[in-house]
C-alpha cells in the first residue's frame, strides 16, 4: 500500500500517543517504586527505634504510614488512568481531524482538477516520512524507559509481596493492640460498676 501524507500523519499521531502513554507509565511505575522504598525505610526506622516506642505506637505509626502511602498509590493510579484516557481521546480527535482534512482536500482537488494533492504528496512525503522515523525512534525509547522504570518483574513482585506482608503484620499488630485496649476498657467499666454498686 502506498503511503500518503494522511497515512503518515495517522502513524505519527499514533506514535505520539504511545510515547505519551509510555511516559505516563514511567511516572506511575516510578511513583510506585518510590512508595515501596519509603514504606521499607519508614518501617526500618520505626523498628530501629523500637526500644524507645511502645508496641501500639509502633504499629500505629506503621499503619498510618501505610494508609498514607496507600492513598498516594491510589491517587497515582487514578491520575495516570485519567491521563491515559485523555491521551486516547486526543489521539481519536486527531485521527478524525486528519480524516476530515484528507477527505476535504481530495474533494477540492477533484473539483478543481489541478492535481495539487498528488504534487503535495510527492514533495512533502519524503520529509514527513523522515520526521515519522524520528518519532518512531522516540516512541521506542520511551517504551524502553518505561520498562526500565518498572524494573524486573521478579523484583516488582518481591517488593509487592513484602509490602503485603508488612501491611498484614501491621494490621495484625494493630488488631492485638485494639483487643488489649478493649479489654482494659471493659475491665475499667466493670470496676467502675462495682464501685458504683
If you had to describe this structure to a student in words, what would you say it looks like?
12% of the residues are buried. With 197 residues, the protein is mostly helical. It is built from 4 helices and no strands. The mean pLDDT is 79. 92% of the residues lie in helices and 0% in strands. It has one domain. The radius of gyration is 30 Å and the shape is elongated. α1 packs parallel to α3 and α2 packs across α4.
Share of β-strand residues = under 5%
Oligomer: single chain
Number of domains: 1
Order of helices and strands: HHHH
Tell me the helix content: over 70%
Number of helices: 4
For the structure shown, list the relevant keywords.
197 residues; mainly alpha; 92% helix
Topology:
Blueprint: H1 5-48, H2 55-112, H3 116-150, H4 153-196
Helix pairs in contact: 1-2, 1-3, 1-4, 2-4
Quick structural summary:
With about 200 residues, the chain is mostly helical. Helix content is about 90%, strand content about 0%.
